[in-house]
Give the backbone structure.
Amino acid sequence: MRYLLTHGYELIAHKWRCKNGEIDLITRQQTELVFVEVRTRAGRASPAESIDLRKQHKLIELAYTYTAQNSISPETAWRIDVIAINMDQHGNVLRLSHIRNAIEEKQ
């Protein structure tokens, strides 16, 4: 979370939950709402690759649920980012990757 805050993001919610699931972080970057999925893996395994198609659809559904429940205008721009963190066996961060617009709704 500190990474996002130091890069100009404003935290709106942490571990937002509804009956359909959870969004790790909800932030705002300027006028854009940003839903953030955080994935952590040990070693060199790719955390981002652990987000399968089912999880992608779930995150999109959760984003729509959040905007509806919070009366956010359909005109409001939003995206889903992924923060992928690789850690060593001692819990030290080896690499942090921020993938902007990682999950896009397919029309």
Remarks:
- The beta strands are 10-18, 21-29, 32-42, 78-87, 93-103.
- The first strand starts at residue 10 and ends at 18.
- Helices lie at 2-6, 53-69.
- The domain at 2-103 is CATH 3.40.1350.10 (Trna Endonuclease; Chain: A, domain 1).
